[in-house]
């Protein structure tokens, strides 16, 4: 079952209409809260007879008394020629003022339940309720799958901001949303008469004729026995009709009383249909349950949040994942390709493999790795897995490995192709873990694990040739590197550092031009980015983009990176050759695990060399002055103290709370950044105990040294890097 | 004032007359007040000289679950299985006029029969028998005011 497809299309289309239902629901939730706030509840121990007597004393021509769900008492009277409705104080029967149902409430309610379109609108809204129910179910299934099973449903949700918002909101509100959808469907069913909401007819009772006068309301035995706080409605007998009776409706029963004798003519407990209806009505509207109304209002508000975040998730995914022609349903596919990709580049390779098999006349299904399955029709299964950071799975496939490990092995070969970068020790670490698990479980394979370095097209071609040979059929892999849409950046300024033995370094500041309001609306402008995200730059003579950590956010109005000139480096050489006014093409690659999530907890930033760049960006954007502490390792303050002047400024204006430096090539400079950490162990322990987040940026050996030092430092408080990382508090950006 | 015109040719059994007998065409107009609520449910019906139910002329509003809020009509017409046959339509918005046309036997006029109108609006007080006027030839064209939802009621005989 393709829950994903259902969720996506239902969410996009039905969700857009449901936004109106949600926002109107939010407005409607306000009324029960207001009513509860204003209500004058009946005093404890007051009987219906006493209440009616008091009200009758103050309201001439009284015909009916109602208690609203919030507990207010309303008196309906006919005085002279004027029908009146008055709020009365149940404590003394005094009239508080005219009662008029809110026109705004009525207008919003009609929008909420029928879009002002009467029955066709009600049917449409019922359809939306059904859609919301399906979205709740499919969304929960998808979240469980993404997090690795039902028991992990409470786990941390990784991914872009839109994905996190969508998932967290879903987790919090899906039950309320499903409940509201169900109650809405029930209410539609009662409106259209499919489900009874009440008994159809009242008992046929009349007051016995006679000469004696009517009993006063205070003298009616039944009303003297009933407590006013269970009253819903009391109808006085009409003066013009001698056969008319008293009619009293309580929460749990209704009664009719002879006007002259006071005898109870009928006493009927509320039928089950009405009790159910009342209960469901209260659950849906929050009437009489103001705290629940607040929850319902929050849920109403969540629908636009769901829709907007869901729309963004869809758009981000659409931008990343190429369109696959001739994608067969999984249950009929011979070849299945599963992809784990953080930034989306691996999808380009998957598409090439997909298209090659389609051209070969096979039914092919390509999907994200968390949907791993091997249907009966399958002949070959491929897993294309990129490795994220330090051997981690990409966020969307976070639990896929465990899922695969839990499946019974089949006879269909499953071949793993890894993607990564050799400069990381955990090069293809995730693909290796997948390969290991699959073999251990006993799945056969067509080819052994191959790891593609830096998206090398040549290496991919060689793998394709080996695959062709193994399968005995020609597969032409036609891989075109997918570069996301780029924007033009113009060098606005540069600050050069000698950099010492490691080579010259420059902090480059770029600006972009505004595409105008229309261009912005069409998404042609500079996309949003935060300090810690990456910018991809394609040098003129290489198809492969290089990535640099951003030292600024879009709000800063410029894009800043710190580039060390690598010996023979195509991209760093190109960048170092830029003069102010020169232009480059670039795109933004989100780095969701590393950027700060906006929580108000303190942050310890640990960087060395050019690795200080994203950390400087964090500090620069710390307008809220969250406690931030920077540990910065360099060689020589005269050569490579990047952002040094700015950092001192931030220290002065409070954006940075503390700075510890270590200069390794200066006598008495303090060694490496690890040494600075050890010297400040006491404060680090306090910070981590207080919930601080940690961000580490620098070379691979530096990050390993930092992790080792931190493990030592944190041991006394029973914590380590591994655990902090699992809790989402520790992230590295290494190169 | 807006006017919505609903015409119905009454062919119900209780009021229908043998083809030979004399009958008259009666047009009943019910104009609603601007009472500040959703569309009103209205039941227009006849009672005889003893106050017993004689037939339903029109019911505005199609959802049976709300008929409980037209209590006099609901109670009196309970025995009439065909009370809704061909005589239902949409609820009537505030300020609008419901016009019902019926063929009524001569024998019903000046014989103690009454035209009654029950009215109900969501979340407002039920208004049974808001209109109660004798069906007489002399009463044609006379306006009667209701007390809660109905601005005026009158009938014309042709």
Please explain how this structure is put together.
The complex is a heterodimer of chains A (735) and B (158). Chain A contains 20 helices and 24 strands. Chain A folds into five domains: 3-36 and 105-197 and 287-318, no CATH class; 41-90 and 210-270, no CATH class; 323-471, Rossmann fold, CATH 3.40.50.360; 487-589, Elongation Factor Tu (Ef-tu), domain 3, CATH 2.40.30; 603-734, Rossmann fold. The mean pLDDT of chain A is 88. In chain A, helix 16 links the parallel strand 21 and strand 22 (658-663). By secondary structure, chain B is mostly beta strands. Chain B has one domain (23-157): Sandwich (Immunoglobulin-like). Chain B is built from one helix and eight strands; from the N terminus they run E-E-E-H-E-E-E-E-E. Chain B has a five-stranded mixed β-sheet. The two termini of chain B are 25 Å apart. Residues 1-14 of chain B have low confidence and may be disordered. Chains A and B meet through strand 1 and helix 3 of A and helix 1 of B.
The Cα radius of gyration of chain A reads 35 Å
**Strands of the largest sheet of chain B, in order across it?**
4-3-2-6-7
Strand content of chain B: 35-45%
Largest interface: A-B, 25 and 19 residues
Structural class of chain A: alpha/beta
Count of individual domains of chain A? 5
Spans of chain B of at least 5 consecutive residues whose pLDDT stays below 50 are: 1-14
Give the C-alpha Rg of chain B: 14 Å
What is the β-strand count of chain A? 24
Mean pLDDT of chain A: 88
List the helices and strands and how they pair.
The complex is a heterodimer of chains A (735) and B (158).
Chain A: H1 3-38, H2 48-58, E1 62-67, E2 73-79, E3 82-88, E4 95-98, H3 103-114, H4 118-147, H5 161-191, H6 221-225, E5 231-235, E6 246-250, E7 253-257, E8 264-269, H7 272-285, H8 290-320, E9 335-340, H9 345-359, E10 364-368, E11 380-386, H10 400-406, E12 414-420, H11 429-441, E13 450-453, H12 457-471, E14 487-497, E15 505-511, H13 516-521, E16 534-537, E17 546-549, E18 559-564, H14 570-576, E19 583-589, E20 603-608, H15 612-620, E21 628-634, H16 644-653, E22 658-663, H17 673-679, H18 681-689, E23 693-698, H19 700-714, H20 721-726, E24 730-734
Parallel strand pairs in A: 9-10, 9-11, 11-12, 12-13, 20-21, 20-23, 21-22, 23-24
Antiparallel strand pairs in A: 1-2, 1-5, 2-3, 3-4, 5-6, 6-7, 7-8, 14-15, 14-19, 15-18, 16-17, 16-19
Helix pairs in contact in A: 1-3, 1-4, 1-8, 3-4, 4-5, 5-7, 5-8, 17-19
Chain B: E1 23-32, E2 41-47, E3 53-60, H1 71-76, E4 88-89, E5 97-105, E6 114-120, E7 127-134, E8 150-157
């Amino acid at each position: 079952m393709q829950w994903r497809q259902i969720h996506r299309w239902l969410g996009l289309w039905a969700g857009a209409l449901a936004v109106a239902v949600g926002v109107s629901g939010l407005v409607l939730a306000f009324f029960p809260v207001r009513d509860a706030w204003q209500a004058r509840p009946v005093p404890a121990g007051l009987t219906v007879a006493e209440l009616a007597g008091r009200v009758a004393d103050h309201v001439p021509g009284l015909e009916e008394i109602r208690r609203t769900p919030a507990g207010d008492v309303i008196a309906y009277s006919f005085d002279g020629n004027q029908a009146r409705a008055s709020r009365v104080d149940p404590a003394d029967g005094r009239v508080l003022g005219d009662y008029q149902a809110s026109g705004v409430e009525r207008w919003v309610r009609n929008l909420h339940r029928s879009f002002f379109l009467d029955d066709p609108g009600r049917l449409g809204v019922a359809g939306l309720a059904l859609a919301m129910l399906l979205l709740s179910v499919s969304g929960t299934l998808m979240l469980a799958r993404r997090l690795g099973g039902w028991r992990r449903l409470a786990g941390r949700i990784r991914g872009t901001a839109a994905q996190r918002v969508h998932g967290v909101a879903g987790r919090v509100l899906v039950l309320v949303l499903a409940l509201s959808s169900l109650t809405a469907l029930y209410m539609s069913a009662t409106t259209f008469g499919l489900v009874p909401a009440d008994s159809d007819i009242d008992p046929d009772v009349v007051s016995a004729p006679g000469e004696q006068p009517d009993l006063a309301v205070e003298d009616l035995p039944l009303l003297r026995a009933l407590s006013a706080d269970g009253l819903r409605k009391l109808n006085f007998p009409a003066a013009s009709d001698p056969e008319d009776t008293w009619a009293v409706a309580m929460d749990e029963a209704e009664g009719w009383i002879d006007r002259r004798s006071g005898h109870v003519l009928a006493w009927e407990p509320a039928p089950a249909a009405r009790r159910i209806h009342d209960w469901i009505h209260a659950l849906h509207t929050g009437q009489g349950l103001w705290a629940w109304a607040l929850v319902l209002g929050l849920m109403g508000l969540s629908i636009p949040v769901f829709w907007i975040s869901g729309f963004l998730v869809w758009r981000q995914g659409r931008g990343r994942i190429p369109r696959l022609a001739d994608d067969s349903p999984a249950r009929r596919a011979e070849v299945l390709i599963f992809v784990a990709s953080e930034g989306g580049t691996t999808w380009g390779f998957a598409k090439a493999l997909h298209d090659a098999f389609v051209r070969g006349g096979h039914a092919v299904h390509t999907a994200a790795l968390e949907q791993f399955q091997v249907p009966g029709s399958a002949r070959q299964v491929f897993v294309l897995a990129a490795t994220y950071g330090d051997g981690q799975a990409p966020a969307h496939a976070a639990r896929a490995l465990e899922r695969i490990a839990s499946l019974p092995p089949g006879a269909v070969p499953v071949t793993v192709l890894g993607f990564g970068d050799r400069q990381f020790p955990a090069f293809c670490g995730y693909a290796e873990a997948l390969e290991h698990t699959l073999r251990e479980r006993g799945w056969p394979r067509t080819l052994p694990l191959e790891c593609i370095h830096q998206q090398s097209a040549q290496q991919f071609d060689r793998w394709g040739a080996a695959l062709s040979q193994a399968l005995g059929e020609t597969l032409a892999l036609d891989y075109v590197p997918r570069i996301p849409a780029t924007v033009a950046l113009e060098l606005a300024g540069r600050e050069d550092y000698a950099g010492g033995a490691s080579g010259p370094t420059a902090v480059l500041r770029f600006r972009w031009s505004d595409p105008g309001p229309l261009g912005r609306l069409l998404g042609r402008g500079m996309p949003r980015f935060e300090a810690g995200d990456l910018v991809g730059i394609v040098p003129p003579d290489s198809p492969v983009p290089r990535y640099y950590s951003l030292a600024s956010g879009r709000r800063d109005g410029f894009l800043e990176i710190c580039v060390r000139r690598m010996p023979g480096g195509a991209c760093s050489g190109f960048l170092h050759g830029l003069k102010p006014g020169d232009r480059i093409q670039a795109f933004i690659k989100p780095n969701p695990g590393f950027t700060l999530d906006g929580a108000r907890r303190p942050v310890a930033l640990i960087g060395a060399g050019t690795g200080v760049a994203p950390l400087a960006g964090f500090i620069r954007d710390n307008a809220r002055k969250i406690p931030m502490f920077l540990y910065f390792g360099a060689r020589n303050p005269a050569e490579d103290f990047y952002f040094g002047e700015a950092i001192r400024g931030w220290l002065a204006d409070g954006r940075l709370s503390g700075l510890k430096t270590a200069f390794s090539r200066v006598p008495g400079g303090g060694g490496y950044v690890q040494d600075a950490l050890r010297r400040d162990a006491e404060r680090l322990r306090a910070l981590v105990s207080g919930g601080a987040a940690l961000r580490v940026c620098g070379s691979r050996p530096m990050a390993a040294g930092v992790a080792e030092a931190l493990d030592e430092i944190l041991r006394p408080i029973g914590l380590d890097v591994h655990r902090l990382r699992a809790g989402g508090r520790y992230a590295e950006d290494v190169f | 004032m807006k006017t919505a015109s609903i015409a119905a040719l009454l062919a119900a059994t209780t009021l229908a007359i043998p083809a030979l007998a004399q009958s008259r065409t009666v047009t009943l107009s019910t104009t609603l007040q601007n009472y500040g609520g959703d569309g009103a449910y209205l039941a227009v019906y006849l009672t005889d000289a003893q106050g017993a139910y004689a037939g339903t002329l029109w019911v505005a509003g199609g959802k049976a679950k709300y008929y409980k809020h037209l209590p006099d009509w609901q109670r009196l017409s309970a025995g009439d299985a065909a009370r809704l046959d061909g005589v239902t339509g949409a609820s009537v918005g505030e300020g609008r006029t419901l016009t019902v046309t019926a063929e009524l036997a001569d024998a019903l006029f000046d014989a103690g029969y009454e035209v009654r109108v029950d009215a109900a609006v969501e979340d407002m007080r039920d208004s049974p028998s808001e209109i109660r006027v004798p069906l007489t030839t002399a009463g044609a064209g006379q306006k009667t005011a209701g007390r809660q939802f109905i601005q005026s009621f009158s009938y014309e005989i042709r």
